[in-house]
Write a structure and sequence with these properties.
about 270 residues; alpha+beta; Arc Repressor Mutant, subunit A; Beta-Lactamase; DNA binding; transcription; IclR family transcriptional regulator
C-alpha cells in the first residue's frame, strides 16, 4: 500500500533541507541549498530561520553558511537509544528462521569489528558465539564481509592499513563450551589487505558473503548487507548453519532468501511502503 502524498509542502521542504544538510561535509550557503533543492530562496531563508530558532540548524554568520544543529543530533541519539535496528530486525529474523529452519542474526559494523544486535536461534540448533552484544573481527565473519564489501576502497584501506590490523583469531570447537576466542588454525585465513580486497571483489560479484568454519568449526554462514536510505550499509543479516546442512552449491539460493529479508528491513528503515 502506498501512502498518499503529503499535502503539507512546508513540512516536506523543511525535511528536505535537513536531509540535504545532513549529507554535506560542512556548512553550506542558503543560496546553495536553494539551488540544489530547486526551492525559492525566500522559502529557504524562512525555513532555515525556523529551524535555527528550534536548534535544528546552526548559522555561521562570519561565512553566511548553515549546518546541522544540536537538536538534530539529539534526534539521532534518540534513534540510537530506541534500538530501531534490533526492534525492526528481530521479527524479520524470526520469519527467516521459521522459513529456513536455520539460525539467523543481525550485525552492524563498528570499526574493524561487527557487533551482533539480534539473534534468532532455530529449534534444535546449538547456541552460537554470535550472541547479542558479541564483537568479532569483521573480516572473519560473513556479516562483516558483506558490510565491508559495500565500503569505498579508500575507507576499507584505512580500516586495514597494515597486516597487524587483521586479527587471526576465531572460535573453534563447540561454541557452547567456549567463551573466549582461540587462535585460528587455518591456512586460508585473511591476513593481508590484498587477500581481503580479492575476497570482497568476490562478494560484490556474487551479491552475498560467506564463511566456512572461520568463526566456529563445523559451521558456515551466508550474509547480505542491509542498506539505508543513502545506500550506506546499515547492518548485515546472516544465516548460520551446520556445514553439512547447506552445501556450497545451495548458498546462492540461500543468499536470495536472505536478500529478500534484507530488502524488507531496508524498506522499514527508510519508513516507506514502496
Amino acid at each position: 500500500m502506498t501512502r498518499p502524498r503529503s499535502t503539507a509542502p512546508a513540512a516536506r521542504q523543511t525535511l528536505t533541507i535537513l536531509q540535504f544538510l545532513a549529507h554535506q561535509r560542512g556548512p553550506v550557503a542558503a543560496s546553495a541549498i536553494a539551488t540544489a533543492l530547486e526551492l525559492p530562496r525566500s522559502t529557504v531563508y524562512r525555513l532555515l530561520g525556523v529551524l535555527e530558532e528550534h536548534g535544528f540548524v546552526l548559522h555561521f554568520p562570519e561565512v553566511q553558511r548553515y549546518g546541522i544543529g544540536i537538536a538534530a543530533f539529539e534526534m539521532s541519539s534518540g534513534f540510537s537509544r530506541q534500538e530501531p535496528l534490533s526492534r525492526l530486525g528481530r521479527p524479520i529474523l524470526a520469519a527467516l528462521v521459521d522459513h529456513l529452519g536455520e539460525s539467523a542474526h543481525l550485525a552492524v559494523l563498528h570499526g574493524r569489528d561487527v557487533i551482533y544486535l539480534a539473534e534468532e536461534r532455530a529449534p534444535r540448533r546449538p547456541a552460537l558465539v554470535t550472541d547479542v552484544g558479541v564483537r568479532l573481527p569483521s573480516h572473519l565473519t560473513a556479516s562483516g564481509r558483506a558490510l565491508l564489501a559495500t565500503l569505498p576502497k579508500a575507507q576499507l584501506r584505512a580500516l586495514f592499513p597494515t597486516p597487524e590490523a587483521f586479527a587471526t583469531r576465531a572460535f573453534v570447537g563447540n561454541p557452547a563450551d567456549s567463551t573466549l576466542p582461540a587462535p585460528a588454525q587455518r591456512g586460508d585465513e585473511v591476513s593481508r589487505y590484498g587477500q581481503l580486497a580479492r575476497l570482497l571483489d568476490g562478494v560484490r560479484e556474487r551479491g552475498y558473503a560467506g564463511e566456512d568454519g572461520e568463526v566456529t568449526e563445523g559451521f558456515a554462514s551466508v550474509a547480505v548487507a542491509v542498506r539505508d536510505h543513502t545506500g550506506w550499509p546499515a547492518a548485515g543479516i546472516a544465516v548460520t548453519f551446520p556445514r553439512q546442512n547447506v552445501p556450497p552449491e545451495r548458498w546462492p539460493a540461500l543468499a536470495a532468501e536472505i536478500a529478500h529479508s534484507a530488502a524488507e528491513l531496508s524498506r522499514r528503515i527508510r519508513g516507506r511502503d514502496s
